[in-house]
Structure formats: structure tokens, C-alpha cells
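Supplementary Note 3. Input sequence used for the single-chain structure prediction.
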Amino acid sequence: MKNILVSALAFLVAFGACAQVKEGEDPKTTEVWEPAVKKITPGKEYGAPPSDAIVLFDGKSLDKWESGKGGPAEWTVADGAVTVAAGKGVIQTKQKFDNYQLHIEWRAPSEIKGEGQGRGNSGVFMQGIYEVQVLDSYESRTYSNGQASSIYKQSPPLVNATKAPGEWQTYDIIYTAPVFNDKGEVVHEATVTVLHNGVVTQNHTRIWGNTAYIGSPTYKAHGKGPIMLQDHGNPVSFRNIWIREM
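The predicted structure, written as C-alpha cells, is reproduced below.
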């Protein structure tokens, strides 16, 4: 992020200089050469972590996770996935983040039980506060701002891209954290872009505050926070979780 800001500042300086020149003068006035753009190695296939990613779950261990109550994460790890253990509570990353690209894959249970919010329910919480809903929305109706890939109780997805229960699904989340001033007031609200199974379902969506079940969203000043996964009592599974800080 720092290099991007430096590059942007350099461009603004160059643009300012360019604004003073006349047509036909040197086009190099708008070229930005430093700093050079960092080179990384992309994943070999869609969903594979690039070289600069932090792998949060590799299918084998929850070493980078903890219980929201403190202590070890107690969800079930098997067959390359981690599955909600009902009643054990949320799990969250030990490391805290603010601005990032997050890749996570999830699967609703193939055995269909319940309807609406009781069907394959979990959630991905940015900074432990702002939820992108996980839900079996394939053929089950619920409130639109509570279905899969909604910003919970705030913004419905642009489309319903949900696959059938039992199939693996992907979220690619680009998240920008809120900024607060010294008085704890919001200077810039959080924003999020979500691709659900490769389809844009949230496009630089403004987050209005915490994603509470009851009441209007509000902001309270905070710093970096964990990636949190919700225990809603349904055996939802997750795999291939990685993050790139920005």
C-alpha cells in the first residue's frame, strides 16, 4: 500500500507539472518510474495462493487460528477442510489485518436441513466486525440482505451466484478498512468488493457500520482485527484460505 501511495503522489506531482506545459511538449513529464512495481508469482491455477500471500489454512492445521473465547480453535479438521463444530463458538486468526485481498472457499452441507437463515449458515467477518454472509441460498429464500455474499443486514448481492449444497464455492474479498480520526469519528467508511464463484456480487460496496442482527449499524473506532468465521450451528466447511495485505 505504501508503494502505491508513493506512486500516486509521484503521478500527482508529474500531473501538476504537466498541467503547466503546452501541447507538443515532452510526454515524459507524465511517466512515473520509481518506485518500481513489486514483482510476485501468481498462483498456477485459479484459487492458488500467489507468492506474497499468507496462507491462513492449508487443509492440515489450525495453528494460525484461535477460539473467539481464547485458547485453541476447536473446529474439526479432516480431508483438507475445517468444519464448524456446533457450540464451540467462532474461530479467528491470531494475526490481525486491515486492508487486504482474501480468498476463502466454503461448502454448505449436502444434507439439507432447515430453511432461510437456518440452512448452511456461517459468515466471514472482516476485522471481526463486518460480515459477508455464508448461506445455502441455492433454492432457499430469505431476506435479500441476509443471503449468501450479502453484507449482512445491509447490502444484498448484485446477483445470486450460489452453487448447490455440497459443492465447493469461492469468495474473493477485497476489503478496505474504515479510517477514524483522533476523536474516534469516521473519516472514511469501510468498503468491500466480493466475487462469489468468480462473479461480482458486491462492487466497492460501502459498509455502514457493524453488521448487527438487531438494530441499525454503527461505527466504533478500532484498529486492525482478525478474520473471523462464525459458528451458527450448521456444519459448514472451509478450505484454501489465504490473504494478501495491501
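The first helix runs from residue 2 to 19. Residues 101 and 148 are 19 Å apart (CA to CA).
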